[in-house]
Specification:
Homeodomain-like_sf; 168 residues; DNA-binding; HTH_TetR; transcription cis-regulatory region binding; mainly alpha; DNA-binding transcription factor activity
């Protein structure tokens, strides 16, 4: 059910998705969705929380092999292929003005931040830079500049994703 919600919310966002759409994707009735989650808002929170937990879990797995920012970055690049996951999370950030959604989304982001520091021992500045690059990759992934179904690249796209370029 939560995976169906991630898919639906990734496509329509919080405001543009109905519990009926999620039910259709999950192959269940809309009343069943409400019985399980109580409201569309709670279903959305479950979807966003799931997306953030997948990132944290992926980071923890990567850190078992090598607890560095580079290994976590590589792990995140793998997750970019799951476009629905990252797009759902972006919709969570945009819905953070909602008094019930905002605290949950901020807590998810804070958990990811603390996890990165815990796993790698990185300082605040390094972690901030890592997250900034991750957000850039998230946005580029959502726009299909990165990932398995990427669009043909314009020059500005190539400049942004050439992460080895030393030029300022």
């Amino acid at each position: 059910m939560v995976r169906a919600a991630v898919t639906a919310f990734a496509t329509g966002g919080y405001a543009g998705t109905t519990t009926d759409q999620v039910a259709g994707l999950a192959g269940v009735s809309q009343p069943y969705v409400i019985r399980l989650f109580g409201s569309k808002q709670q279903l959305f929170i479950a979807a966003v929380t799931h997306a953030a937990a997948r990132i944290e879990d992926h980071f923890r797995e990567a850190a078992k092999a090598e607890p560095t920012l580079a290994s976590l970055g590589s792990a995140y690049e793998e997750l970019l292929a799951e476009r629905e996951l990252i797009t759902c999370l972006l919709h969570g950030y945009t819905a953070s003005a909602d008094p019930a959604i905002g605290p949950v989304v901020r807590d998810c982001f804070g958990t990811i931040y603390r996890t990165i520091r815990e796993l790698t021992g990185a300082g605040v500045k390094e972690t901030r830079q890592f997250l900034a690059m991750g957000m850039l990759m998230t946005v580029l992934g959502a726009m299909r500049v990165l990932g398995p179904d990427a669009v043909p690249r314009d020059p500005w796209m190539t400049e942004l994703i050439d992460f080895d370029d030393e030029e300022s």
